[in-house]
């Protein structure tokens, strides 16, 4: 089978996995789960680019979705993005297996696209992080060759998906690229790389990551309130045991997420967890014993080890991480440690593919078939929308009427949302928790309480506007709200419980109520200056555009094909194995 057909089969396999995983989420409407918020007809607003003074976690992923939604319906955008994650994850991992055989490649692709990490992050709604995860094997393959001709462009292309995902995706992918560039000892053709060349490659990696980070790095750095970094959140976001093997064992099996509500149903039972652990340990052994790819083998292994240490840090040594966050708030990106097991998933997937290839070489093809099927069989509840947890819903008619009323009003003033909490459990969303969609649903400045309550711990609000309106939200009356430059109060849950004193009701429905506050003035909120942000977007966009200015590069899913120039399909003749 030719290489193009192998890539096509891997893509179709990933598509099949995505269809199986999303299931009812593919129906018309939107899948709303925790941080996954898509809305109909999104618009470019100051919040889209991080200009409102809130922490720009949604930059640039919201801009990417909004741009696509100008061409196709926004619910179709969500489905295409989620399916693309599975397609690219399967393709990228399959391309990394040093074998021309199809089954070993599919074993790696299926394992990388269907595992506890993907399931838990999908249930948590972190599609933007999963975009970077899907391209991580391509990052591994390209980071080791940054000093070669065209290597910088290849790495930029490999990091594009992580750049779209934003700060968490790019932090994770950039760390992997840096470690691979520093730790790999051989380059193209198996020639040794000296320390100076590795350092030069690492410097280029850092430069690329910084430039691609500018769209969110600049508004984050220019926030009037500064970059937040709360050390108390270390304990909240630390990895948790979701298997009988404790925190470290759970991380080793690619689980261990901090939020127990996003663990797939049935996962962590002794039998299934035991088999998962056996698969992981066997894959790691196969990677160490039989993976002979000279370029990135060592770098990927070191990246997996570094990632595992970071993933466990908040659980094993929380004072260390709290001290680091206190020293520099930028270390807050390490608080959600479990996301850093992603490079371990790359090594496990490649190891499973190598083991399957070895089984075929030893004339045990059924073992290779079992390796392809094992991830799905050991995590069956990821199928059908994570056993029904991920279902498409439509926003109620009250929401559309409210948007029409508020967006058509030219009077100044912000929108205050009650109840005063960050997450909602709407009946029309089957009680599934979701980040309040109104800041993306409406085109005005929307103020919600962005303080996060996890168990008995409260992480303080970060939005200065939310902090300023906290007392007014507790006892809302029209005079106070008018003085705070609030034009509308929207109650999107428990509608009968909240009614601002003196405000004019303009919409009262079972799912949402809207109250108008007359006399509000234009707010004087401290915002991020637009000019530096525009320059940041131009710089990042120019680097991405430049990376595609290379002969033979095409757009679409195969656009990273040049990264595979030293893929198993192009191994020297003496390195090829018989099909």
From TrEMBL:
Signal peptide residue numbers: none
* Protein's name in the database: Uncharacterized protein
Enumerate the transmembrane spans.
Answer: 80-97, 122-144, 156-180, 201-218, 267-288, 300-320, 340-360, 367-387, 534-560
Q: Which UniProt keywords apply?
A: Membrane, Transmembrane, Transmembrane helix
Provenance organism: Actinomadura violacea
Q: Does the keyword Membrane apply?
A: yes
Keyword Cytoplasm listed? The answer is: no
């Amino acid at each position: 089978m030719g290489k193009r057909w192998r890539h096509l089969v891997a893509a179709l396999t990933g598509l099949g996995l995505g269809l199986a995983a999303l299931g009812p989420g593919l129906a018309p409407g939107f899948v709303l789960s925790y941080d996954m918020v898509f809305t109909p007809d999104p618009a470019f607003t100051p919040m889209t680019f991080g200009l409102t003074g809130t922490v720009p976690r949604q930059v640039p992923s919201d801009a990417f979705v909004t741009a696509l939604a100008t061409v196709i319906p926004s619910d179709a955008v969500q489905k295409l993005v989620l399916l693309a994650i599975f397609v690219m994850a399967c393709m990228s991992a399959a391309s990394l297996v040093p074998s021309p055989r199809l089954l070993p490649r599919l074993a790696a692709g299926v394992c990388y696209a269907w595992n506890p990490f993907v399931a838990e992050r999908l249930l948590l709604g972190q599609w933007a992080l999963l975009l970077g995860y899907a391209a991580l094997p391509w990052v591994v393959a390209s980071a080791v060759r940054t000093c070669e001709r065209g290597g910088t462009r290849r790495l930029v292309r490999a990091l594009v998906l992580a750049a779209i995902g934003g700060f968490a995706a790019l932090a994770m992918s950039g760390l992997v690229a840096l470690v691979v560039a520093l730790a790999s000892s051989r380059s193209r053709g198996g020639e040794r790389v000296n320390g100076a060349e590795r350092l030069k490659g690492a410097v280029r990696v850092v430069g690329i990551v910084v430039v691609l980070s500018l769209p969110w790095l600049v508004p984050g750095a220019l926030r009037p309130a500064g970059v937040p970094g709360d050390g108390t959140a270390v304990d909240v976001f630390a990895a948790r045991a979701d298997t009988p093997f404790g925190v470290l064992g759970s991380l080793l099996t690619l689980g261990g997420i901090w939020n127990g509500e996003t663990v797939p149903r049935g996962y962590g039972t002794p039998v299934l967890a035991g088999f998962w652990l056996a698969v992981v340990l066997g894959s790691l052994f196969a990677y160490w014993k039989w993976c002979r790819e000279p370029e990135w083998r060592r770098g990927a292994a070191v990246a997996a080890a570094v990632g595992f240490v970071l993933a466990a840090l908040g659980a094993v040594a929380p004072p260390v991480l709290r001290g680091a966050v206190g020293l520099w708030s930028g270390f807050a990106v390490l608080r959600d440690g479990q996301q850093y097991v992603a490079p371990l998933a790359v090594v496990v997937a490649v190891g499973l593919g190598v083991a399957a290839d070895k089984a075929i070489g030893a004339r045990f093809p059924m073992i290779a078939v079992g390796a392809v099927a094992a991830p799905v069989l050991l995590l069956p509840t990821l199928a059908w929308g994570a056993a029904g947890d991920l279902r498409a819903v439509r926003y109620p008619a009250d929401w559309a009427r409210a948007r029409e009323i508020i967006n058509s009003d030219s009077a100044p003033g912000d929108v205050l949302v009650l109840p005063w909490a960050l997450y909602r459990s709407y009946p029309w969303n089957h009680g599934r928790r979701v980040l309040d969609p109104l800041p993306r649903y409406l085109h005005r400045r929307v103020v919600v309480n962005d303080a996060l309550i996890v168990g008995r711990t409260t992480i303080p609000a970060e939005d200065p506007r939310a902090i300023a309106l906290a007392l007014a939200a507790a006892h809302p009356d029209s005079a106070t709200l008018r003085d705070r430059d609030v034009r509308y109060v929207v109650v999107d849950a428990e509608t009968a419980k909240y009614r601002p004193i003196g405000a004019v009701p303009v919409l009262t429905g079972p799912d949402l109520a809207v109250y108008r506050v007359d006399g509000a003035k234009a707010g004087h909120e401290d915002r991020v200056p637009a000019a530096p942000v525009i320059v940041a977007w131009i710089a990042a966009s120019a680097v991405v555009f430049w990376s595609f200015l290379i002969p033979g590069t095409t757009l679409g899913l195969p656009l990273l094909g040049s990264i595979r120039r030293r893929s198993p399909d192009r191994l020297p003749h003496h390195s090829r194995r018989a099909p």
